[in-house]
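=== Structure Prediction Worksheet ===
Name of assembly: unnamed complex
Input type: mixed (protein and possibly other molecules)
Chain count: two
Listed entries:
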Amino acid sequence: AQKVTQAQTEISVVEKEDVTLDCVYETRDTTYYLFWYKQPPSGELVFLIRRNSFDEQNEISGRYSWNFQKSTSSFNFTITASQVVDSAVYFCALGYQKVTFGTGTKLQVIP
Amino acid sequence: SQTIHQWPATLVQPVGSPLSLECTVEGTSNPNLYWYRQAAGRGLQLLFYSVGIGQISSEVPQNLSASRPQDRQFILSSKKLLLSDSGFYLCAWSSDRGVTEQYFGPGTRLTVT
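=== Predicted Assembly ===
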């Protein structure tokens, strides 16, 4: 069975602060994929990134960066210099064809 | 480019009434299709997924059913709604070529009264 744990239920930061969203996963598969999605108040989930289990390189995309560590089964997401538009619920997910989602972390960026 | 549509956007239905939610995808062929429910509080629960016409896998036994009458059409139904069916229903698609991310529709907010 697969499991994704996002222990941070809600986080509040002041604009321009950096924030890291934690994601810990469990799986018995040797090949798997990890994802991050953003759900703004409008409700539609937006895909942010996909990572496969053989690629542990960290990735940076603008103000977003992801740290994948197989040794600790973690796939953390950092937003640098947060902005109000970053306010949303962020989901970490794990899987292959079927995907298991974490319960999400609600990020509030205060101006 | 690919787009995914869901309707209706909002629905209020009495207990015991039927339900039909529709999802269509444009710009791709033979997509994998998914129905999720998100109850108040955020978690996403996979309800059904389909890898082809008429091929439906159910993840959670309940009074909902799904059908895929056409390649890019996915329908979620119920004969009699329960109060517990209230929630935010999301349809998603992914490519059938290897493992790819899922792309979500705008969702349907269902309130059963």
